[in-house]
Amino acid sequence: MPRLAFVARTNEPITVATRLPTMTTDDTDAPQVPIVCSACETTSRVPLSGVANAVARHNDQLHDGEEIAQVDPDIADQIADLVATELGLLEDS
Ligand SMILES: [Zn+2]
Fold first, then answer.
1. Ligand 1 centroid – CA 70 distance (Å)
2. Are residues 80 and 18 in contact, defined by beta-carbon separation less than 8 angstroms?
3. 62 CA distance to ligand 1 centroid (A)?
4. What is the pTM of this model?
5. Short-list 24, 80, 75, 26, CA closest to 52
6. Which residues are found with C-beta within 5 Å of the ion, ligand 1?
7. 25 C-alpha to center of ligand 1: Å?
8. CA nearest 44: which of 59, 57, 34?
9. I need a labelling partner for 8 at 20 to 30 A (CA). Which of 17, 43, 61, 84 fits?
């Protein structure tokens, strides 16, 4: 399960990223997370700890606060899954 290494490295930032919006900039070694915007047709990679802020800022500045840009759904699923696993919420599934 190579993904477990990702969990261990990103324990705190993942928690932050799932609790919008929070700014945490002290983790300079955070993995990059892709943010996709279907309206702009762009993908940008930002540190995991800054994802929530980056998404909020993009949508606020470019889309009048509409939640168009988002973490790549595939990655978001993985993050949610990893966080749940980390917290032991998936033990019986
Ligand atoms: Zn956009």
1. 9
2. yes
3. 6
4. 0.54
5. 24
6. 37, 39-40, 62, 69
7. 23
8. 34
9. 43
